[in-house]
Design goal:
19 strands, 8 helices, 2 domains, alpha+beta, ten-stranded antiparallel sheet, six-stranded antiparallel sheet
Amino acid sequence: MLTRTLRFALSAVAAPVLALAGQPSFAAGTIRVDAPVTHDNLTIYVLRGESAQGAVPLTLAEAMAKGAVNVHETGNVNQLTLENAGGEDVFVQAGDIVKGGQQDRVLVVSMLIPAQSGKVPIGSFCVEQGRWAARGKEDVKRFASAEKVMPSRTAKLAMMAPAAEPAAAATMPAAGPSAPGHAAGRVQQRAASGPGSDTGSRQSEVWTSVAAVQDKLAKSLSGPVVSPVSATSLQLALENRKLAEARGRYLEALKDKGAAGDDAIGVVFAINGRLNSAEVYPSNGLFRKMWPKLLDAGATEAISEKSGKSEPAPDAAAVLAFLAAAEAGKASEKALNDGLVRETRDSVGALVLETKRKAGTFLHRSYVMK
């Protein structure tokens, strides 16, 4: 199979703020890109490289299904807490959607939650409007699952772009299951969108992106995907039966391609012949665990964009150019906790978000085409 090699030279990467012994930000140094594989309007390019050794953490979906991790409401619209009561580390990916609570949320940073962690704060955005109460028999104070990941490039950009100076946290009044959902939603929206609030502006962009995804899916599938239980919930729309059937055809055609080989560590997606995004992991084991969710989201976004103009799929060289150009973006860093830092690289054509250990090894890297 045709492959090409991408080498990240030290001179092509701006020096990190933290002292990392002069390493490039992508510590693997070299990755290989498989030739494109296409189904309908979705193309994948498997990224291959050296796989890190050692234990593979649980994903958030796995940990929540086992009851090892609880995701709790805090009263703050844009912050939740994760509590890992289990004996294994848990990987959380930016874009993970958690279902339930007072509103469905999408998590905004990739992190490693250690075993027996206690409560760990994490940023979030709502992907549902109007509800601020229990939905059916769901627990209003914590979340039930994390089976989906954000299927929108525009929403990812809204979530990931370098932040303005932080505004004061938006704290919500307590709302029990009996609280009127729409009234609570209006209070919530005002609190999140206070004067000069960068978070409020981003929240509005995420809501706009969610509505656009729902509208595009309805057009592509010739029928609504919203749920009568909560018409604004992205999570419930993603569970729509007709959408699941359409998505299943993409999964059947492409799922085995991403899982092949013990050196697969990431994937690049193109939709309608245009590069969209990429995800890279330190190990084959972690990539394999995340691959079904990634493909699910890629297929959903491809279905939503089927009415768009399609072009021939780019070749591997174009993928390498995309990744290299993204690597050359302006770098900034923010500490997530005592052990992890998030590096953002902002270029004209792409945004890169990487979570790495302060010692220099990386945990997850996400590329999004602007």
